[in-house]
Here is the input.
Amino acid sequence: MSDKTLQLHPDRLFPTDARVRDIARSLYNEVKDLPIVSPHGHTDPRWFAYDENFGNATELFIRPDHYVFRMLYSQGVPLESLGIGRQDDAPVEQDPLKIWQLFARHYRLFRGTPSRMWLDTVFSEVFGLTQVLDENSAGHYYETITRQLATDAFKPRALMDRFNIELIATTEGALDPLAHHQHISGTPWAKRVITTFRPDDVVDASREDFADNIRALGEMTGEDTQSWQGYLQALRIRREVFRRHGATATDHGHPTAATSDLSQGECESLFARCLSGKANAGEQELFRAQMLTELAGMSLEDGMVMQIHPGAYRNHNPLVFNHFGRDKGADMPSQTEYVQALKPLLDKYGNEAKLNIILFTLDETTYARELAPLAGHYPCLKLGPAWWFHDSPEGMLRFRHQVTETAGFYNTVGFNDDTRAFLSIPARHDVARRIDCRFLAQWIAEHRITEQEGHELAYDLTYRLAKQAYKLGDA
Amino acid sequence: MSDKTLQLHPDRLFPTDARVRDIARSLYNEVKDLPIVSPHGHTDPRWFAYDENFGNATELFIRPDHYVFRMLYSQGVPLESLGIGRQDDAPVEQDPLKIWQLFARHYRLFRGTPSRMWLDTVFSEVFGLTQVLDENSAGHYYETITRQLATDAFKPRALMDRFNIELIATTEGALDPLAHHQHISGTPWAKRVITTFRPDDVVDASREDFADNIRALGEMTGEDTQSWQGYLQALRIRREVFRRHGATATDHGHPTAATSDLSQGECESLFARCLSGKANAGEQELFRAQMLTELAGMSLEDGMVMQIHPGAYRNHNPLVFNHFGRDKGADMPSQTEYVQALKPLLDKYGNEAKLNIILFTLDETTYARELAPLAGHYPCLKLGPAWWFHDSPEGMLRFRHQVTETAGFYNTVGFNDDTRAFLSIPARHDVARRIDCRFLAQWIAEHRITEQEGHELAYDLTYRLAKQAYKLGDA
Amino acid sequence: MSDKTLQLHPDRLFPTDARVRDIARSLYNEVKDLPIVSPHGHTDPRWFAYDENFGNATELFIRPDHYVFRMLYSQGVPLESLGIGRQDDAPVEQDPLKIWQLFARHYRLFRGTPSRMWLDTVFSEVFGLTQVLDENSAGHYYETITRQLATDAFKPRALMDRFNIELIATTEGALDPLAHHQHISGTPWAKRVITTFRPDDVVDASREDFADNIRALGEMTGEDTQSWQGYLQALRIRREVFRRHGATATDHGHPTAATSDLSQGECESLFARCLSGKANAGEQELFRAQMLTELAGMSLEDGMVMQIHPGAYRNHNPLVFNHFGRDKGADMPSQTEYVQALKPLLDKYGNEAKLNIILFTLDETTYARELAPLAGHYPCLKLGPAWWFHDSPEGMLRFRHQVTETAGFYNTVGFNDDTRAFLSIPARHDVARRIDCRFLAQWIAEHRITEQEGHELAYDLTYRLAKQAYKLGDA
Here is the structure.
C-alpha cells in the first residue's frame, strides 16, 4: 500500500483568497450537479450500443490515453513496455499488471498535469481508492479497478446514469456505417448518444486512401463521386444519414484554418486533380480550404453546427508513427492564423446569423488577437473552449481572461471534454465547472460583474450555452 | 424600472486581498482627481468649438460606438435595426427610442466587457441613474439621459470642466482645413483642445482617393506635389499648420510596422508609380514604409512626437463595409512584427534621443518579445498604452506585466483613451488609474517596489509621463 | 547619504495571501541554503584561475552589464558617458566615480526591473549597504564597494565559498585555448569551475572570421579542416579537449532553431561553399541547421548535453555595433518556430533517450504551443529555464504557468543564471528559488499538488534537476 492518502480537496482549483473562495463555492454548488452535456468527444459508440463491461485497468486507463504514454515516453519509457501494439507485430509487453506497475512507478511525472487530476478524481470518486497511486499501491489499484469493472454497476450505460450524462456525441468519419448508432436507433438511448459528422477522410486529399474513400463514398450514396457535383451531393446525403442518427454538428480537423472561394470551374478541376493523386501539397491545402467553405454552405442549408479544429501537426515523429500508428502523443500544435485564413468563407457566409461555426485553436496567441475580435463581430462565429493541450486549469483561465473582454461570454459555447477516456468525463467537466466558477468569483469580487450575473453565467457556461450552440434543445 | 440596482463599487478592479487592496486604494486616492490629459483621441473638435448640446441617448451612445454595435451584431442584431445608416440609403430604423430599447434588451451581452464598465460608469456618475439598464428601465434611461443632454450643464465645454480634462487632442487628416480648431484659435480653449496630424490620407497609396488627395495637398500648400520633393515640402507645410493649432504629435495607422530607407532616386520613382495608380500592393506597402522613415525625419526636424499604430486589418467584412462603410466594428487585429520591420527607420534615426516615437500594438505577443526590448534600448522609442481591443482591465494588466521588467516604467507614456465617445473619457481614465494602482499595489505588497516608489509611479503613470512624452508642458 | 533605507524584505516575491505566503516561506526555508549549481553562464574563468581582486564598483557593476547601460541608453544617456570603450578609440569618460554617479542619478529607471532587484540584493547582502542608491548615496556606495573589493574576502575564490557555489560552468569558443581552465586543472577547483563547448565561431559561416577560424581549428587539431570529414573530426577532438576541462555540455546560439539532415554529398559541397566565402544567407542558415544535427549526433556519441539558444537578432543597432561592438544591449528577440524547425534533427535522433537536448527560447508564445508539447513527447528534449529578457519574476512565472501542465516538472532542468555578473549569481538564484516556491505554494494552496510533493519539487527544481540534466553527478 502507498503511505500517502489520496485526497480530493473539496476546494481544489478554487481561489485561495477566502472571500473569493466563498463566492466560488457558492457558484459551484449550484452547477456541480447539473447534467453533463458532452457535445464533442471521441468515445466508442460500441460501448453504449452493446453495454458490455470494460476490461482491466491497463486497457481502460493506459493503452488508449496518449496523454499518459506521451509523458512516460518523454522520460524514456519505451512504448513497447506499455503494451502499445506495433504495426509490424513485433513483441510488446502483454501483461497488463506489469504495465500498470510501470505506470505507477512513474506516476510522479504527472504532478501538476491535468492527467493527474483527472486520474486521481476517477480513482477516488469512481473506484473509491484512498491511497495515492505509486509502486506500493499499484497492485491494489489494479485489482480494485479490474474487479469493479466486471460488475453491472460499471457497464457503460450504468455509468452514463451514474455520471449524469444527459447527452454524449461521438465522432464518426463520413464513411462510417454508423452500425453502433443504428443499433440504438429507435431506443431511448438514441437521444443520449448521438454521432457527429467528421468528413476529413473524404476531404483531405493528402491521405493515401483519399481516392479509395471517394469511391466508397460513391458506392454508399449512389452518387457519381468522380464528378464535383456528385461528390458534393454525396456529402449532403451522408450528412442527412448522420442527422438521422442524432448528429447536430460536423467537425473538421485541418492543418490550418485556410478557406477559399473558388469558381465552379476551378473547383471541378482542383477536385479532379486531387482524385488523380497528382495534386501537390499546395493544391491539397487549397482543396481542404475550398471544402470548408462548401461545408459551411451545406451547414447553412441543413442547419448542422460546424466545428473547425485547426492547427495540429499530426504524426510529427515518423518512428513512432511507423511503429505504432496515429494518435500516439506525437501530434504538435503549430502557429495558426485566422483573420486572413477565414476571410473567403466569411466573405461568403460570415453575415448569416443562422449559421453556427465554432472555432477552436491550439495557438493561444490568437485568443485576444484574432478569435475574440472575429467572434465579437461575425454573427456566424462562436468560440469553442480551450482545446487539447489547453484543456487544463491554466489553459481554461487563459481562455477566459483573454477572450471575455472582447467576445463577451455569449460568443462562447460551454465546455467540450473531447475525450475517448469515458471514465474521465465527469472529472473533466468538474475541472471546467470549478475553473469557470473561480473565474466568475474573481470578477464578482472585483465588482466587474454582479453576484446575480455570476450565478446566471455559471449556469450558462455549464449547461445552457452548450445546448444552445449545438442545437440540443431548450435549456 | 429595472429591479436591479446599478452599483459602482468604490473598490471595483482593485485586488481582492485586503492588504493589497488597502495599498491600491491609497495610491488611487492620490491620483483619482488629477486632471485628465488625453493626448490621443478621436472626439469631434466641432463640439468644443461651438459648444452645442448633444442630441439624444441613442445618438450619443449607440450610433457612434462600434464597440457597442459590433457586439450586438455578433449576436444577430441587424445593424439596420440599430439605425446605422446604409450607403445605399436603404431604410434603417429611425426611432431612437426603439433603438435604445433594442440595445437595452441585449445589454447582458456586454457582461464582463469594458464597454459595460464604461457605460455603467457614465450612466451612474454622469446621469445619476440608479438601476441597471434592461428592458424595463430602457424608457426611463432614454428619457433621463436625453432630458439632461439638453441642459447647459451638459454642453461640451461644461463637461470638459466637470470631467477635469486639462487637455484633449483630436485627430485630423492632412487635408483637414482645421476649421473647428481655427474657430477656437486665440481663445483660452485653444490650449485645451489641440489637433493631431494624421497623414494616412496622403501617405497610403492603396486608397482610391490617393491621387486626388495629393493634388488637393498641392493646392492647399502651393507646392508641386507631383514631385517627390514638392510632396515632402507640402507635408512639412501642413505639419507647421497643425502645430499652429496646437498639435504636438503625428499619428500613423498602417497595416504593418514596415519601414524602409530607399535612395532618393528610388523614392522618386516609387512615388511616381503610386501617383500613377499603377503601384501594386507591395509597392504601396513599400511607399508607406518609406514614408514612416521620412516622417520620422520630419519629426526630428520639427519636434513633433510620432505615434505608430500598426496591425489593424481594416474593413474585414466586405458586406458591412459596402452597406455601412468604415469603422463599423469589422476591423481585426493581425500578427505584427517590429524587430525587422522598424530596422530601416531605426538604423537611420534610432539613436536620436531628441526623437520621440511611440509604438502601439494590437498583437500582445510583441510586448515582451519585441516592444519592451526595443524600447529598453533605443533612445527614440517609447511604448504607448494597451490599445483598442486591449484597452481593458485584463489588457492593461497584461501590458504592465509583460513590458515592465524589460522596458521599465519610464519607457511607457501613460494612458490614451483613443475614443470618439466623449462622455466615456473619465470612465476610461478611471479604469486605467485603477488598474495601474492595482498593479503597483501588487508589486509593493510583493516588495518589488517600495511604497514611496509606488506613489511616485502612480503620479507618473497617471499624469506626468503623458505630458512629458507628448511634450505638453511641465508636470 | 540617501534618505531612503535599502530594505530587502524577507518575503519579497512571495504571494500576498497570508496562507499561501506561509507555504511559500516553508518551501523556501528548505531550499534557500542549498548549494548553487550554475551549469550555464558567462563568467570569466580567469577570475577563478588566478584569484585576483576585482577593481572598482564601476568596473564591476556597470561596464560589463548590458542590462544596465541598455536601460540608461534608452533614456538618452550616451554610452560614452558610461565609459564604454569605442572601437575607434574616441574619448570616453574615464573617471569611474563620475560614471558611478551618473548611474546613481538614473537609478530610478530600474524600478520594477530584475536588474534593480539583483543590484539591491548585492548591495545589501554582499556589501552591507543600508541606503538606497541615489545621487546622494553614490559616493558612499562607490567608496564602500571599492574598498571591500580590495580585501581577501572579496577575491573570486572566497566569494565562490561565501556564495556556496558548488559548481560553475563558463563558456568558451571552440578555438579557445582554455588556458585558464588549464591553470586549475589537477587542483580541487577543477571540479568546481568547468568549461562549456560553444562552437558558434566555427559553425556560423556568416561571420567574417569563419574561414580563418576553420583554418585555426585545423592547426589546433592536426586535422584537414578544409574537408567535411576532417572538419567534423576536428570538432570531435575539440569536444574531447573541453571534456577534459570538465565540460559536460555544449551551447549553440543560433538565429533560429532550424535543423536539417542533408546527404553527405550535400554537406560536403555546402561546407566547401561556406568556406569559399560565397555562400549566401540561406546557405549559411542551412549550414548552421545541418551542424545542429551533426552536433546532436556527436552528443549521442560522447554524452555531452546539447543546449540550443535560438532567436536572438544580434547587434540590431549598427551605430552601437560600429562604435562599441557586440553585447551592448542591442540584441533583440525574434519570433521563433520549433515544431517545423527541429523536425529534421528529431526525425534522426529524437527518440534517443540517452541524448539530452535542452531548448531555450526568447519567444514565450512557444512555451505552451510548441516547447511543452515537444518536450512532453520526445525522450531527448528538455526545457531550459526562462531565458535572458525572461529571467525575471514575471518571466519565470509565465514559464511555469505555461509549460507545466503539458511538459510536467520533470521535463525542465532547474535554473541557469546565464550571467557574466559574478556577484549577482546568488541574487539571481535566490529570485528563481523564491519564484519556484511561490509557484509551488500556489498550487499546493489550490490542492493541485500535495504539500509533500511541493517539498520534493522545490528540492528538485532548485538542485536535483540541474545536476541530473547537465550530468553533474548525483543529487
About this structure: The domain at 53-154 of chain B is CATH 1.10.2020.10 (uronate isomerase, domain 2, chain A). Chain B has a mean pLDDT of 97. Chain B touches chain A through 47 residues (CB under 8 Å).
